[in-house]
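Q: Hi! First time doing this. I have a protein sequence and I read that you can turn it into a structure. Is that right? Here it is:
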Amino acid sequence: MAQVPQRFFDALAVRTWCGLSLRALGRAREEIDAINVYPVADGDTGTNLYLTVESAVAAVEAVFAAHEVSTAAGAGAGAPGPGDAAGPSLAEAVQAMAHGALIGARGNSGTILAQLLRGMAQVLAARGEPAHTDGPGLRLALRHAADSARQAVAHPVEGTVLSVASAAADAADAAAGDCGSVVRAAYEGARAALAATPGQLPVLERAGVVDAGGQGLVTVLAALVETLTGQAPGAAAVRVPHARAGHAERLAGGECAPQESGGEGPAFEVIYLLEAEDAAVERLRRRLDALGDSLVVVGGDGLWNVHVHVDDAGAAVEAGVEAGRPYRIRITHFGHGDVHTAGDGRPSQERAERAVVAVVPGEGLAGLYTEAGATTVLARPGEPPASGELVQAVRRAHAREVVLLPNDAELRHTAAAAAEQARTEGMRVALIPTRSAVQGIAALAVHEPERRFDEDVVAMTSAAGATRYGEVTVAERQSWTTAGICQAGDVLGLIDGDVAVIGADVTATARTVLDRMLAAGGELVTLVLGDEAPEDVAEHLENHVREAYLAVDTVVYRGGRQGAPLLVGVE
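A: Yes, that's right. Below is the predicted 3D structure, encoded as structure tokens:
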């Protein structure tokens, strides 16, 4: 079915573009992975770009969903405001796209793509609150995107995605007309630049391939052309030259190409999100530049995505700690990581028989789950993991049989998609629909790898299902709840996902929640304290349980920055 053309670039166009880009990268992912030879031939550029755009899509969809809820609430209370029916503004949509890409950026090319999207958003959001932008506005956005991405790379190299982005902006600058004309020109300029990359980088010429990151960008620009014209370009990327495609396949299979300096390059890729001030980030850039190469630092307004290749991964993380607060830290050893085969195709290590993969909301729980033998995926508040991230975690667990614990009702569909993808790769995966981390703790407590897979899954599912879960959190805005209308700053007590108590004090609300949960019986109370919890809440609740419920035990864990001051489990 042909895409309906959009004359202007507005919020709906942003949504459509993101969706088309994700689908296009999904189709091209394996091909792009296969030609990934620079800066390291680790065969994951297509996958990294896909995961980066997947995170952008999730953020944009969340903005649209929030406006739909707001419109519905407005309709219930009276006539909606003029902005409600129109959905999000262009500024809101592009800022969500850029933020989603930033927090979900993977690898060198994904990090650069995140900065390209951020550069576009900076121009389009700075134009106030117009409903759309026209051809000249889109030209300015593409130019700023290319320039800001180049500035984010410590040592820009020609023949990479940076060259392709600059060529796209140059071609757009020379184009006249509406948005469709501008993006067609940008796309054609990018394609021509992509075809020229082997002549700019010797490693590409030797392999007989174009730059993988550049090919990914051409794919994304092709989706933008389809969004604004209704027609997909005839060819979204330059193919691997047939005569030398076998060389690219061998490289993708694990033969790492040397760096241009002639050495073998750093051993680790280090990526993390960083909360830090601008001045601290400038110092961090200088320190990381001295530690390694392929340095890309993107972001701003207090949140950054840091990517670098180093031999001393610990020093790269320590530099982040000195600059601010790093989290979502990912360290990949080139030749290992998520690639489970060596150059000869044999498994790099023997697969475990069974593993547990769990999504956890805070660093403290991540440590607890890891100590229990689980592979964890950290979900920061407002930053749920994408299905691709869960698939990577399942691969990282490196087991024949995997039990997946999403620990969040909102992640049910995401986890199901990840499980299905893992099954197509030959793994046996069981999804236990845990809706809270406390249910995951209960499931993990009865996990026994020695028994039959089906029996283990049944036991873990039963333990999770027998655990009621509660949460004490603070309302961010006025809203309707199952317990009445709450105001911003009210303390909310949730039981099994529904608001049961509206209070003014965390400790008092937690006690009420606990009493209501224990009214149905229970033998064990699990309390998971967030960083925002009052110092004495655990002691108060433990004493209350000891005095009022003689046969009930209590265990307390520190969850760290988990989004809610308190999680409660009763089993």
